[in-house]
Amino acid sequence: MTMLTRWDPFRELEDMHNRLSTFFNRAPARLGWGDGGESLALADWSPAVDITEDDKEYLIKAELPEMKKEEVKVTVENGVLSISGERKLEEEKKGRRFHRVERAYGAFERSFSLPEDATATDVKAEFVDGVLRVHLPKVPAAKPKALEVKVA
């Protein structure tokens, strides 16, 4: 008996994505629905970041919704600022099922080279309303000093 298989172009795209992920040593996380229905491959994620500057400091803002400050780590080493953590997928509870999961989950790490005029010793971070703010103070610029030369 020959079984007919329905052609699904999106399935072919998903297969190609999985092969490319394997080629680049990344296995995509998958959520299967178990009933032959829709499945979703979750991409690696990294939080969106804004970097601004004023006369006194650089400010890095990272969006980390539904994370706690204990789940985020900020380090400065060898002139590189790193922000890392993990956002965990909510587990299904009894009587509650997921119909669609589109937000990304998993471990992340963002790294930024410090500008030459930033000081790594006084870095401060605060976590408010799902936004991590990292303050990188600038090294005070040396003021040019005029030297008077006496003419003999």
Mean pLDDT: 81
Strand order of the largest sheet: 3-4-9-8
Q: What is the percentage of strand-forming residues? A: 35-45%
How many whole angstroms does the radius of gyration measure?
25 Å
Q: What is the N-to-C order of secondary-structure elements (H for helix, E for strand)?
A: HEEEEEEEEE
* Secondary-structure arrangement, i.e. CATH architecture of the largest domain: Sandwich
Termini separation comes to: 111 Å
Tally of structural domains: 2
CATH class category name of the largest domain = Mainly Beta
- What's the count of strands? 9
Q: Assign an overall shape.
A: elongated
CATH topology of the largest domain: Immunoglobulin-like
User: From the helix content, strand content and strand pairing, which structural class follows?
Assistant: mainly beta
Uncertain residue ranges? 31-37, 39-43
